[in-house]
Design goal:
Glutaredoxin; Glutathione S-transferase Yfyf (Class Pi), Chain A, domain 2; globular; binds glutathione; Glutathione_S-Trfase_N
Length: 213
Amino acid sequence: MAIKVHGPIMSPAVMRVVAALKEKNLEFELVPVNMQNGDHKKEPFITLNPFGQVPAFEDGDLKLFESRAITQYIAHTYADKGNQLLPNDPKKMAIMSVWMEVEAQKFDPVGSKLAYEIAIKPMMGKVTDDAVVAENEEKMGKLLDVYEARLKESKYLGGDSFTLADLHHAPGLHYLSGTKVKSLFDARPHVTAWCADVLARPAWSKTLELNKQ
Ligand SMILES: N[C@@H](CCC(=O)N[C@@H](CS)C(=O)NCC(=O)O)C(=O)O
C-alpha cells in the first residue's frame, strides 16, 4: 500500500519527512490538509495525529506522527533504498542521536521563534517583537558556536557522512537562510559550508520543487 504524508509542503515538519522520502527515492502521496480551515484539529485528521499537528504519515497499516520519528522509520525500514541516512556502527549511531536531540531540543525552538517573528508575523500583518528577536539571535549565536566547533572536527554532525542529524536541520536552515539571521551562519565558516552542503542535496531541491507545484 502507498506511503501517504498528510500536510502542506511549506510546513517545516512536513518538509523534514518529504526530504527523507526523497533521499530514499520512495514514491508517496502528499495529502493536502487545509490548516486555514482548522482541518488539522478535526476528524478525520485527529485520528491520524491526536495532537492536531502536521505531518501525519501512513505506510500501509502503520500510522505515525512526529516528523523525527517518521524519518527514523523511513531510514531504518528502507535502509537498502536510495541514500544511506544512518551510520552502520553503534557508537556512530549514538553520536548521530546526540545531534538529532540537539536539533529537536535546542536548535528548533530558537530557530522556530526567529522564523516566526521575522518571516511569518509580517506575512500575517502582525508586528515583529524586536526583543524576542534579539534574545533568540543571542541564543542562536551561542548555539552556532557549538556547531562551528563540531563541524571543524567532522564534515557532518554525525561524522564523515550525511545522516538524519543533518537532514533534520534542513527546513530550519532553509527558512532562516532567507532572513537576517543568515549573517549568524555566514560568520562561521564551517557552519556556512555545512549549510550549503545540506541545502544543495538533490533530495532537498526535489522537496522544494513540490512547493512550486
Ligand atoms: N514535533 C512535531 C511538530 C509538528 C508541528 O509543529 N507542526 C506544525 C506545522 S510545522 C503544526 O501543525 N502547527 C499547527 C498547530 O500546532 O496547531 C513534529 O515534528 O512533527
